[in-house]
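ingest -> validate -> predict -> emit
validate: passed (alphabet ok, no gaps, 317 aa)
predict: started
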Amino acid sequence: MQDDGTTHRAHGTSPAETPGTPGGKAAPAGGGPALRRTVLRRVLPSAAAAGIGVAGFAGAAYGGQAPTGTEAPAAARQAAGFPTWGTRWVVHASADVGSPSVGMLNTSGAGQDRITADYQVDTGRTVCEDSACSTLMAHLTGPVSGFLSVVAVDIPQDRLPGIPVKGGPPPQQPGTSREEVLRRAATWLTADDGAQVPYSQEKVWKDGYRQDCSGYASMALGLPAPGTDTVGLATSRALTRPITTAELEPGDLLIDADGTSDTRHVVIFEKWNDAAHRSYTAYEQRGGHGTDHRSLTYGLPGGDAEFTPYRPVAFGD
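emit:
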């Protein structure tokens, strides 16, 4: 039963800077950082047509036009955190990649900084780095305040999952229903070309969520990616509240929040297996296997007593 803690993925050293390549960066050789990122990121078809490249280091102007008004939308959530990649990413004063610099990320090494963002702005202008492209800039709340192109963030999407886009539809709210939570949980059983999503405390899946137990539970609940850790799922009363074992219903959680990242664990309750409540069926993301749907006794007499039942507050009961 392995869990995440706060570990996140890092790419290591970025490609060398040489003239004549988009953004001044050399094409990576073999399975280098940029190549791995290219495989993960989704490429926007419009980028190729536009032929727009972006430099990811100080002094370079992306070009583009500032959208009117970049204040946070009323529906903005609490900021969520994401890893970065590469080196020398400029944080801008406004949602315009040509605006002045207010800071820089990863100044001397790839992936040294982790950003937090509370909303993002669609500038209407596509920018690219390697084969990753996006029209969005994220409003950062840390480690420096300002706006950063989403292509600087190490996620497999062209936008930050779970973060509202100014003027766009609100992001999916946590756990809209018990049925939806279970439906989302089941998707990871076959998401890897018909196989379960592999377990990892360091990697994120194609939907932006960590591939560990709490990242999986966060995905099922619709929480902001890359996911809340196990301790947060158990202790944040904005997310869950303790219940008794007898009260367990589909979509509730059983959590062991004690110990270390190698012992903490969370599973998603689906149903009791018998009237005597001697076991239940649950969804989990477990070390050495990946996504699973099986019978468990965590938290029951004769099982692992360290597990406590919790109810997501989004269910409203």
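Residues 178-187 form the longest helix (10 residues).
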